[in-house]
Amino acid sequence: MKLSNVLLAGAAALALVSCGKKEGAEGPSSETSAAAAKADAGSPLDKKFTLKDAEPTDIDALLALMPEKSRPAYETATFDDALGATVVENLRFADADDGEGVTVARAEFYGVDMDAIERVKTAEKTGPDAPFETVFQKVRFLDVASQGLEEGNEAVRLTIGGVEFDKLQIRQGGVEGDGAGNEAARFFNAVNLAGVYFKDLSFGTESGDAPTVSMSAPDLRFVGLGGGKLGAIIANDLEYDVTQSEASLAAVRQAMGPQGAMLMNSPLGALFAPKRQHVKTEQLQWRDIDFAGLLSWGLKGEQPPASETDLIDLGTMKATNMETFVNGKRAVTVAEANMTAGEFTWLAPSNIKVDSKDAVYDFTAYVPETEEEALKVLKDHGLDHVEGDGTASWVWNSKSGAADLTYEANMKKFANFDLGLGFGDFKLADIAAAMEDGDDEAILTQGAFKNFSMKLEDEKALDAVFALAALQMGGTGEDLRASVPAMIRLSGAQVAQMNERVTDYVNALADFVAEGGSLEVAATPAEPVPFATLQTAGATAPQTLPDVIDLTVTHEK
User: Which of 170, 178, 308, 443 has a Cα-to-Cα distance from 522 of 20 to 30 A?
Assistant: First the structure.
């Protein structure tokens, strides 16, 4: 039994052949979903739900709508008048071929409308704008557990304290509708839910060859699904864990090559591939995800033209109080991380902004306790407590063609790093026209390099780097650092014969290593340089590239 099929088993049991009050295309809402959208509200499953004036559901008739091979078994089905729900005990979805299965200890069905299901099945109008039918008001699955599941060569463990499907609607004609467009678009166009809420979700995989992965989510909610939109994803106390096997670590070493393997075997090897990594997030809020524009084209089975610019918006995201543990020791804490913009123009990101605040790094977490010298070096240079924050953004104007990537990381009393990269001539209309003419590399043939800047301000970073390098190479960090500038100048002398600018670059880098301070690399041509020009120069006259982009490297003490 495929894991994906298991996870969908509950939804399949509810949607059945699909399925009466008609509501808008953006999905239903309920009193429960309004509360669930508030991050600090408790899990909806913590609250007792009752449905007034409810009628029993014929469970046998409901399950009979499913294909016989997929039909679950159960022990008892009774109507609880106090809840207004039909309660099913020990509902089991099983694969007769291999014994895999999922058991639901208790299922509660509220307000299932069999007439609505029949209208969905027998509807004459089955297109993408067919009216919705409300299938049920609420269904709860409690104490869900898997048995013997496998996905590929991995054993899969799944338990859920409870999952609630809140107010399901399906268009007349069901998920298949009239068969037009692609399958995913038909599904998301036909199915609306006020919400899906999980309580005490635990998931894990085990394999002798691949990393072991586990995740737990005491409170996970998807609120307001409909019309290609998702109102909110809320998670409280989310955790996941990745533990490498010896086989998976060996595969990483092989992929990194001899030099990479050497780094992995060094005292700081856990920086590249930790044996175990555990991540906690106290709260995650991801809101206003919108694929409605893209959905409409999926229903046509067509790629949207470049004139359709409002297709995707990833909304906003906020995560608070995140912790990362490496091999059991806390390595990073981040008080807050945000995505304040996630906008697309056509199918390309056009306004993405992310930031992190009040981060604290402890690099000793990556070093085994047995590496006493390395630990001492890190602590002596303050790397057991480094505070910092960072921002990154990507902004593209599809009409003017200007695009800018920026990144900034500030690590107090250690180092600051700024990066900027600018492009020009990324005009969507021109790129789309070139693509229509058969140019598969239209971005490269149409775009241009505008500018580049990188600035590194050193406080303690160079001291720490050379002290750590000395552990591997012998001697002291001070002696090693003192010897490197001469080697830089010597190795750069031959390259400088190709372009006199290189002498300035080499001297700036050597002075930075010797004295610290700041090193800035900048490329600011008077006019944007087409990518095609850079490609030609790189292939035929690479020594001219510094002149083409007006590259400078400067050092300030």
Answer: 443
